[in-house]
């Protein structure tokens, strides 16, 4: 993927660029918001990583300006501002995701991957399929190898998120936000517990494992290689 | 008493203004009364003179000149103070009767100054002018007149009376203004002093209230409330700084130890990697603690309240139950929930914060109670709003400790080894406070009951 990093702290920018390049992406970097606006309009990026505190133009205004030109490139905000309202402000300004410093690189990588929209948005899709696992979004039913699986509403949602992001890694934080609307870190192992319950219903008794644990990062649903 | 300040005082100026207004009113009233009275009295004088003149004319007509001369002279003699003047002049202008010398003939009313009256006899009057009525009877010329002495006397009474009145208004007004001004100055001075003391650092000072409930008392009350809040916030900040310094040193020291250990004792890359991983975990803990502290501070600052929306407590709790039921089960606890089937359980609040609050409470029960505990969550109505009750039959919290546990970083001795940074209940307290809800801890004999009372719709 082609990624634009807009960050004025050189160390952080290097850290991000190096990590992203090692993961196989191509990275452009600028420290100035105005340059970023020009770059964003001239080139086609798959994801933009924007620091909220920039010299000359702040991250929020940059995002609004980018959206104002009709540019729909996904924007991931990066910031020390972890306040309750800062996240909402970022999303309202046109951002798609929000990560608070200090961050683990795996978190950034997972979210960047989740934001990439290679194929056109498939909002009309009513059935999700991964290997022999099928989810009907209209009828809210799940079957694997033709066998129906009974899921509670939140389990359904968890599986839906995993299936929609099949092959991508979903970090614990991402799942907490998207499945349970938790914007804080719980003390207990909420995600692990629910994943293990889901596994018991979706993987147990079937010949292949679809839900994988990615050590140190999160979880991923993918067809066996 | 600084006089300059008194003069600038609003109360004083106001009182002075009123005194001025009253004085002005008195003067205006005086003017009106004076004019009206003067006019009426002069009219009365003229009527008297006219009546007199008319009676003389009829005397002349019935009894002739000689009789008239006698009558006039008798009148003049009787009224010899000069107030009334009479003259009867013959066809050639010679004086026939009366008490004044000849005057040029005239017809009708004539007003002449005192000095111009050619008085003959002794005169004690000294009025400013006379009203004279001249009439022709046959060949003769008759003049009857009267001084405005009576009018002047009345005018004098009016002036003296109103003069005293005006003086009183001015004196009482000035005196009252000074009194009111001084009183107000004292009270405002008291407010000023307290605010000055607070600005200098004495946060405990409050304005004494006079108990009269007037506007200065009301403002003083409001200022006192603001000062209460200010003192609370400053104290809170002080406490945070002290707590942070004290309690964050532990994980920071541990971090240092990990890194030092890595440096000194690691023999190969793998042990280095392990040590570094441990160090990273420690920094994550520190960051989370900081974020929790920041969040508490933000909540306590209260800005979030502006974004409150109606939130359904039942829906939030249903969510919590669904999320934590498996977690509790895995820890070996029995989690049961008693939520009503329907009804509106709405309060004005913040979805995210409310979720976090209940999550914290449930997690506390899960992590601090030994395996096998029963945890029960219930949503009940009350007269003022929804009441949420979380009860467990675990070790509980002793009465003496119940006050302390809401403090930041506070950890009960028996819980020191369980995961957590001691901020959970502080966060719960801050969120409850923001929502105007009351949180209380009670003994479940055995165990702990946490009760949160909200204001809003309960079941209706």
Broad structural category of chain B: alpha+beta
- State the distance separating the first and last CA atoms of chain B: 63 Å
What is the helix/strand order of chain B?
A: HHEEEEEHHHEHEEHEEHEE
Radius of gyration of chain B: 51 Å
Largest interface, with counts of residues having CB < 8 Å to the other chain, equals: A-B, 23 and 32 residues
Number of helices of chain A: 8
Strand content of chain B: 15-25%
Number of strands of chain A: 12
Shape summary of chain B: rod-shaped
Short description:
With 225 residues, chain A is an alpha/beta fold. Helix content of chain A is 39%, strand content 22%. A 5-stranded parallel sheet of chain A has the order 2-1-3-4-5, sandwiched between helices. In chain A, strands 6-7-8-9 form a 4-stranded antiparallel sheet, with helices on one face. A 3-stranded antiparallel sheet of chain A has the order 10-12-11.
Short key terms for the protein model shown above:
heterodimer; A: 225 residues; alpha/beta; five-stranded parallel sheet; 8 helices; 12 strands; elongated; B: 460 residues; alpha+beta; five-stranded antiparallel sheet; 56% helix
Task: Give a written overview of the molecule.
The complex is a heterodimer of chains A (225) and B (460). Chain A has 225 residues and is of the alpha/beta class. Helices cover 39% and strands 22% of the residues of chain A. Chain A contains eight helices and twelve strands. In chain A, strands 2-1-3-4-5 form a five-stranded parallel sheet, with helices on both faces. A four-stranded antiparallel sheet of chain A has the order 6-7-8-9, with helices on one face. Chain A has a three-stranded antiparallel sheet with strand order 10-12-11. In chain A, helix 2 (33-42) packs parallel to helix 3 (59-68) and helix 6 (153-164) packs across helix 7 (172-180). The radius of gyration of chain A is 19 Å and the shape is elongated. The model of chain A has no long low-confidence stretch (mean pLDDT 87). Chain B is built from eight helices and twelve strands. The two termini of chain B are 63 Å apart. The model of chain B has no long low-confidence stretch (mean pLDDT 85). In chain B, helix 2 runs antiparallel to helix 3 (149-199) and helix 5 runs parallel beside helix 8. Chain B is of the alpha+beta class. Chain B is rod-shaped. Chain A binds chain B through residues 82-85, 100, 102, 152-154, 180-190, 193-194, 197, and chain B through 283, 287-288, 291, 294-295, 298-299, 303-304, 307, 319, 322-324, 326-327, 330-331, 350-353, 355-356, 359, 363, 366-367, 419-420, 424.
């Amino acid at each position: 993927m082609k990624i634009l990093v807009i960050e004025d702290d050189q160390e952080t920018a290097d850290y991000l660029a190096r990590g992203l390049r090692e993961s196989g992406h191509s990275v452009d970097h600028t420290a100035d918001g105005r340059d970023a606006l020009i770059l964003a309009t001239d080139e086609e990026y798959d994801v933009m990583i924007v620091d909220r505190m920039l010299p000359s133009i702040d991250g929020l205004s940059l995002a609004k300006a980018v959206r104002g030109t009709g540019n729909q490139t996904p924007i991931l905000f990066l910031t020390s501002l972890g306040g309750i309202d800062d996240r909402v402000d970022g999303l309202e300004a046109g951002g798609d995701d929000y990560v608070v410093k200090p961050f683990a690189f795996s978190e950034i990588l997972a979210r960047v991957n989740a934001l990439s929209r290679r194929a056109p948005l498939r909002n009309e899709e009513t059935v999700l399929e991964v290997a022999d696992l099928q989810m009907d979004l209209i009828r809210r039913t799940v079957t694997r190898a033709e066998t129906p699986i009974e899921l509670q509403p939140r389990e359904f949602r968890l599986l839906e998120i995993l299936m929609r992001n099949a092959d991508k890694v979903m970090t614990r934080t991402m799942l907490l936000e998207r499945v349970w609307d938790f914007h804080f870190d719980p003390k207990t192992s909420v995600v692990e517990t629910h994943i293990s319950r889901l596994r018991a219903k979706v993987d147990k008794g079937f010949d292949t494992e679809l839900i994988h644990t990615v050590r140190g990062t999160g979880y991923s649903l993918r067809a066996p290689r | 008493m600084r006089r300059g300040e008194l003069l600038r005082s609003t109360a004083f100026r106001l009182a002075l203004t009123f005194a001025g207004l009253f004085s002005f009113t008195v003067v205006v009233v005086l003017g009106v009364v004076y004019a009206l009275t003067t006019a009426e009295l002069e009219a009365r004088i003229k009527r008297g003179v006219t009546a007199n003149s008319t009676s003389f004319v009829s005397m002349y007509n019935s009894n002739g000149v000689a009789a008239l001369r006698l009558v006039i002279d008798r009148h003049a003699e009787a009224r010899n103070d000069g107030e009334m003047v009479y003259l009867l002049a013959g066809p050639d202008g010679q004086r026939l009767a009366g008490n004044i010398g000849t005057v040029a003939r005239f017809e009708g009313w004539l007003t002449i100054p005192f000095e111009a009256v050619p008085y003959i006899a002794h005169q004690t009057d000294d009025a400013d002018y006379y009203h004279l009525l001249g009439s022709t009877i046959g060949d003769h010329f008759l003049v009857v007149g009267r001084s405005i002495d009576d009018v002047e006397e009345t005018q004098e009474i009016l002036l003296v009376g109103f003069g005293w009145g005006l003086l009183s208004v001015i004196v009482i007004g000035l005196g009252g203004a000074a009194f009111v001004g001084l009183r107000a100055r004292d009270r405002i001075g008291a407010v000023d002093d307290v605010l000055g003391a607070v600005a200098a650092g004495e946060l405990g000072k409050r304005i004494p209230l006079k108990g009269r409930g007037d506007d200065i008392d009301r403002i003083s009350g409001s200022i006192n409330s603001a000062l209460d809040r200010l003192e609370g916030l400053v104290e809170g900040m002080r406490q945070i700084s002290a707590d942070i310094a004290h309690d964050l040193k532990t994980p920071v020291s541990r971090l240092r130890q990990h890194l030092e250990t890595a440096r000194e004792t690691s023999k190969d890359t793998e042990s280095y990697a392990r040590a570094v991983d441990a160090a990273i975990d420690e920094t994550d803990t520190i960051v989370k603690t900081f974020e929790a502290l920041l969040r508490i501070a933000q909540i306590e600052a209260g800005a979030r309240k502006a974004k409150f929306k109606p939130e359904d407590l039942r829906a939030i709790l249903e969510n919590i139950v669904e999320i934590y039921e498996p977690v509790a089960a895995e820890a070996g606890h029995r989690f049961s929930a008693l939520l009503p089937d329907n009804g509106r359980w709405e309060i004005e609040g913040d979805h995210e914060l409310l979720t976090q609050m209940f999550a914290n409470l449930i997690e506390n029960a899960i992590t601090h109670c030994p395996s096998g505990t029963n945890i029960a969550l219930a949503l009940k109505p009350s007269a003022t709003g929804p009441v949420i009750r979380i009860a467990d039959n675990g070790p509980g919290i002793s009465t003496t400790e119940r006050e302390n546990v809401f403090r930041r970083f506070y950890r009960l001795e028996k819980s020191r080894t369980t995961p957590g940074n001691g901020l959970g209940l502080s966060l719960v307290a801050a969120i409850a406070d923001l929502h105007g809800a009351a949180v209380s801890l009670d003994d479940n004999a055995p165990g702990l009951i946490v009760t949160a009372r909200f204001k809003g719709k309960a079941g209706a």
